[in-house]
Write a structure and sequence with these properties.
alpha/beta; five-stranded mixed β-sheet; 388 residues; 16 helices; 5 strands; CRAL-TRIO_dom_sf; SEC14/CRAL-TRIO_domain; globular; CRAL-TRIO_dom; Phosphatidylinositol Transfer Protein Sec14p
């Protein structure tokens, strides 16, 4: 076992600053963001104008956006059929400005999401507490251009796979991505900065990089995941700041470089530990970042809905609570098949209620659909190694 033993970690119910997602807040979210708006409301003239201003669209891009809207109008019930979502496909470089390619990408993406239950993952899946303490975190502050800041850490993905299995880790990964693109924290962002979240400046902290991070099974798994990540989450990343890069980085980069799309490589800047603060300060006010990353300067905390203490340790110690699961983000769907999921999204967003039911195993329900089968090419899934 690769986990360090120490005293028990605090259970979820003792976290301070827990998100208070009440009925009123849920209602506000549904009137501000596309996953709670009708097709007609998503395409109101003022929404389109806001999208034009936010993304700086020219006439040609606007024309393609509106044409794309008409082409995929048969999917108007899907929350992604809105200007702020379709514009990412318009801007995606792999579409080469071709509306036919844009339409194909949108249809493939919505099919893939439905096939893998991603539209409901925030209402049906609860990550393990220990996984919840590791992942990337969206920070409360913004970069110098007013964009979203996310901090990603090495953690111990191999240890998580050994302990919980590949499927659990993959589902947790996509849970984190979905939380980032449509979690309740976006309401806070909108109210504070008077705009929707756009592209992300990602800070990848490589402190602690070691041979476990480039184990063959992890490289193979990353290879399987890169295509669906790039194809279904277009035009999300603005900058990738790789910091605290150790001497071993050049070797590791040689192993994984081929997995990273050329356009993403162009967005990357790398700094060793002595250069980290200089690189970060070019794009982000250092106070926005967590203290562990810029000691004595950083004051940043994750957005509500994430564990505010997740940055306290590079590797969280093993705990009796590790196998417990965190609450659902939006509460169970009314249409869910389980007999105990009887409330709707709009009326089940009380974090206090979710905390009370945290230790009730009946509240934990995962999607019954095949897990991310759209990721795997035929015959390749069995080649992924899981160490025991």
């Amino acid at each position: 076992m690769v986990w360090r033993s120490s005293s028990k970690s605090r259970p979820l119910t003792s976290w301070p600053d827990s998100a208070e997602i009440n009925d009123t807040t849920a209602g506000k979210i549904s009137t501000v963001f596309p996953f709670g708006m009708s097709y007609k409301d998503r395409w109101r003239p003022e929404e389109v104008q806001e999208c034009i201003a936010m993304w700086g669209l020219n006439r040609e891009e606007l024309s393609k956006l509106l044409e794309l809207k008409e082409r995929v109008s048969d999917r108007k019930d899907h929350w992604a059929n809105g200007p702020f979502e379709l514009v990412r496909f318009v801007r995606e470089h792999t579409c080469y400005g071709d509306v036919n390619k844009m339409e194909q990408r949108v249809r493939q993406s919505t099919d893939w999401r439905a096939e893998n239950g991603l539209d409901e993952v925030l209402e049906t899946f609860c990550p393990r507490v220990v996984v919840y303490r590791f992942p990337a975190a969206v920070m409360q502050g913004v970069d110098k251009e007013g964009g979203v800041v996310a901090v990603l850490r090495n953690g111990d993905p191999l240890g998580l796979i050994q302990r919980f299995g590949r499927d659990e880790v993959i589902r947790s990964l996509f849970w984190g991505i979905e939380f980032a693109i449509r979690g309740p924290w976006q309401l806070d962002f909108y109210q504070k900065y008077h705009q929707r979240p756009g592209r992300v400046t990602a800070v990848l902290d490589l402190k602690g990089l070691n041979r476990r991070h480039y184990h063959p099974s992890l490289i193979l798994l990353a290879q399987k995941l890169m295509d669906p990540l790039e194809e279904n989450y277009p035009h999300v990343i603005k900058k990738i700041l790789v910091v605290n890069a150790p001497a071993i980085f050049d070797f590791v980069w040689g192993l994984v470089k081929h997995l990273v799309a050329p356009h993403l490589r162009l967005l990357m800047e790398v700094a060793k530990e002595s250069e980290t603060q200089d690189l970060l300060s070019r794009y982000i006010d250092l106070e926005v970042l967590p203290d562990y990353l810029v000691p004595g300067i950083g004051q940043g905390k994750p957005v509500r809905g994430l564990n505010p203490d997740w940055v306290s340790e590079l590797l969280p110690p093993q705990s009796d609570h590790d196998s417990e699961r965190v609450p659902l983000v939006y509460g169970p769907k009314k249409s869910a098949s389980s007999y105990y999921t009887t409330t709707s999204i709009g009326s089940s967003c009380s974090f206090e209620h979710m905390k009370k039911s945290y230790h009730n195993p009946r509240r934990v329900r995962t999607v019954t659909k095949p897990l991310f089968k759209g990721i795997w090419k035929q015959g390749s899934i069995n080649t992924v190694q899981i160490m025991t």
